[in-house]
Design a protein that fits this description.
9 strands; six-stranded parallel β-sheet; three-stranded antiparallel β-sheet; Enolase-like, domain 1; TIM Barrel; binds magnesium ion; 12 helices
């Protein structure tokens, strides 16, 4: 048994090479990276992290330094489920989502990293060992890129071996989105996996209209068409829009996922290990996504069009 000796945390501001925009977050000039390094009494350490798209990192750092460091002091680093619940409940009143769960995510990830290092195993094997290879897509924060720049970015990603592409939608006029999606589909060829991400831009009615307009271009999914809190709205968009729906990067608790999945409003739950509560929470959401989406992507990748066949590489590790 190794007790937690200390938690070292840091906040870094990472300037972006170019200002990025999506449909909701405004201009992003820098990302914030918050790190947590858990050291145990034997001198071993594990590292976790979370990030923001530009604001709130100081609050996350504060939770790590002022709350989690005290809650976890001298605790057995191996009792991750116990520690997760201890942090969750001791910060519950002012916590649950927001900076608190981002801090918990970084802390939990560090505990799992420490456990894996001590076991001499990669994390994927420690937590069950299904397959070290997963299908990956490439996507940028590219809503405002001119179309030719978007297609050049796509070519770069295809050249790097990605065999699925995600692009942003949610421009001022739906017709602009449709034109860009049509061009991307033509560029990629029929059957090549293409995902669309609206970053919560629309109302339910707008999302249904958009989904129907995108349907001829056969997207794998439409991501975050509406704000994450509108659970019933997701079910409507899925049922009336006719496209599979992906969501999860703005869900912050296991209950958020439970409600959305139970509503029938999400086809592809997307827990983000950096903000859903870390590896511990991710694993509890993952059974809903681990089999079907991977299978779907693999099937779609197998029936790639000529462009994809020429450029496709083995699964990215
Ligand atoms: Mg997204």
């Amino acid at each position: 048994m190794a007790k937690i000796a200390r938690i070292e945390s840091g906040l870094y501001r990472i300037p972006l090479p170019q200002v990025l925009t999506d449909s909701t977050h405004g201009e992003m000039h820098a990302f914030e990276l918050v790190t947590a390094r858990v050291r145990d009494g034997d001198g071993a350490d594990g590292v976790g992290y979370t990030f923001t798209v530009g604001r709130g990192g100081g609050a996350v750092l504060s939770v790590l330094r002022q709350e989690i460091a005290e809650i976890a002091a001298n605790a057995d680093a191996d009792r991750i489920e116990f520690l997760w619940n201890k942090v969750w409940w001791e910060t519950h009143y002012g916590g649950r989502g927001g900076p608190t769960v981002l801090a918990l995510s970084a802390f939990d990830m560090a505990l799992w990293d420490l456990k894996a290092k001590r076991a001499g195993l990669p994390l994927w094997r420690l937590i069950g060992g299904h397959d070290p290879r997963v299908p990956c897509y490439a996507g940028g924060i590219d809503l405002d890129l001119p179309l030719d720049a978007l297609l050049r970015q796509t070519d770069d990603n295809l050249g790097r071996g990605f065999r699925a592409i995600k692009m942003k939608v949610g421009r001022a006029r739906l017709a602009e989105d449709v034109e860009r999606v049509r061009a991307m589909r033509g560029h990629l060829g029929d059957g090549f996996p293409l995902m669309l991400d609206a970053n919560m831009r629309w109302t339910v009615a707008e999302a249904v209209r958009a989904a129907r307009a995108f349907a001829p271009y056969d997207p794998v999914w439409l991501e975050e068409p509406i704000p994450p809190d509108d659970v019933a709205g997701h079910a409507r968009v899925l049922a009336e829009g006719g496209l599979p729906i992906a969501a999860g990067e703005n869900l912050r608790t296991l209950w958020d996922f439970r409600h959305l999945i139970a509503s029938g409003g999400v086809s592809y739950p997307e827990p983000d290990v950096t903000n859903c509560g870390g590896v511990t929470a991710f694993m509890k959401v993952a059974p809903g996504r681990s089999v079907r989406p991977a299978g779907d992507l693999a099937r779609r990748a197998r029936r790639d069009g000529p462009l994809a066949r020429r450029r496709a590489e083995p699964l990215v590790s």
